Amino acid sequence: MPRSAEPTRERLVDAAFALFTENGFARTTVEQITRRACVSQRTFFRHFPDKEEVLFADDDRLLPTIIGAICADDEPVAAEELMADVLGGLAAVMTPDRNRLRARQQIVDGDVALTGRELAKQAQWQPSIAAALVERGFQPHTSDLLAAVGFTLFRASLHEWLLDYDGPTLRERVVTALPDVRAMLDEVSTPT
């Protein structure tokens, strides 16, 4: 995207978030968003296919961040260590946007269709992430499981972090959760 388009895209996102917060997602129209951003509806549709996608505008930069972190090195590495690096790096990228992420999550959580769209978007990423893990040396079946566990762990940590301003950072939550997942798996796999 040309540099000159970034301010317009950002204005559209800011206008949409403000209107979603003021009026609710369902009652906000593309026309209202474009009016608030001082652009035409045609300009809106050059940037976004629909108003729902405005909520996920920042996600476009996250998948390349994840893939880049997985493929940053080709040395063998333990799965837990790689997940800590990749998810910790993702946390670092997302941390400056905490207020917007918090507002977005409140909007998404308030609409079943948006929650479904959020999960569908993440599910679309999973094969790409699994393929990067295979490229890194993990077995295909293991890669699928690692991608699924990574999404679940990160999503849970993100939701906790967005609700708890006084607690640990997002990165700390993610890194702390990894051994907890291992311990839970050990506990589940050991019959009592």
From TrEMBL:
Superkingdom of this protein's organism: Bacteria
GO molecular function terms noted in the UniProt entry: DNA-binding transcription factor activity; transcription cis-regulatory region binding
Residues of the DNA-binding region: 29-48
Kinase keyword on record: no
Phylogenetic classification of the source organism: Bacteria, Bacillati, Actinomycetota, Actinomycetes, Micrococcales
Keywords of the record: DNA-binding, Transcription, Transcription regulation
Coiled coil: none
Location of the HTH tetR-type domain: 6-66
Protein name listed in UniProt: TetR family transcriptional regulator
Keyword tRNA processing carried by entry: no
